[in-house]
Specification:
Helix content: 40-55%
Number of domains: 1
Radius of gyration: 15 Å
Shape: elongated
Protein name: DUF6494 family protein
Pfam families: DUF6494 (PF20104)
Largest sheet: 2 strands, antiparallel
Oligomer: single chain
Strand order of the largest sheet: 1-2
Length: about 60
């Protein structure tokens, strides 16, 4: 793959990671006491032009 492709993909994935972390942290603050709780998380990446739908699931532990 070309260097331009790699750079644009990395930039996009960094933006996804940073903005997702900010959204999760804000939701946790708004939820209040999340200690001892576990939350199911799911991210769906879609690129319509490539007919791509990629799903990642996991768990996030609440904060104490």
């Amino acid at each position: 793959m070309s260097e331009d492709f790699n750079m644009s993909m990395r930039k996009f994935l960094k933006q996804v990671g940073v903005t997702s972390q900010q959204a999760i942290e804000e939701a946790m603050r708004e939820a209040g006491d999340t200690a001892g709780k576990t939350y199911k998380a799911k991210v769906v990446l879609t690129i319509e032009e490539l007919d791509l739908e990629h799903e990642v699931t996991g768990k996030i532990a609440g904060q104490s």
